[in-house]
Amino acid sequence: MSSGKPSTPRRGAGALSPERQALLAKLLAKKGIQSQAQAKISRRSESGPAPLSFAQEALWFLEQLDPTRATHNQPSAVRLTGALDSDALERALGEIVRRHEPLRSRFEVRDGKPFQIIAPPQDFSLPRVDLTDRSPLDAEAEGLRLATEEAHKGFDLETGPLFRAILIQVGSEEHILTLNSHHIITDGWSMGVFTRELQTLYTAFMRGQPSPLEPLPIQLADFAIWQRENLKGKVLEDHLDYWKEQLSGNLTSLEFPTDRPRPSVQSFRGGHHTVQLSAKLSNDLRALARTTGVTPFATLNSAFLITLYYTCRETDMIIGSAVAHRNREELEGMIAFLVNMLVMRTDLSGNPTFGELQRRVQKVTLGAWSHQDLPLSRILREVAPDRDLSRNPLFQVQFSLLTPDHNPAVYGYGLSSGDIEKVDLGGLAMTPIDVHYDNARYDIAAFLWDMPEGIQGTIEYSSDLFDPDTIAHLVERFEKVLNSVVASPGANLDTFVDELDQLESVRKAATQKAFKSSMNKGLKSIKRRKSSTPSAPPAATKEEPNS
Question: Which whole number is the average pLDDT over 173-179?
Answer without folding.
Answer: 96
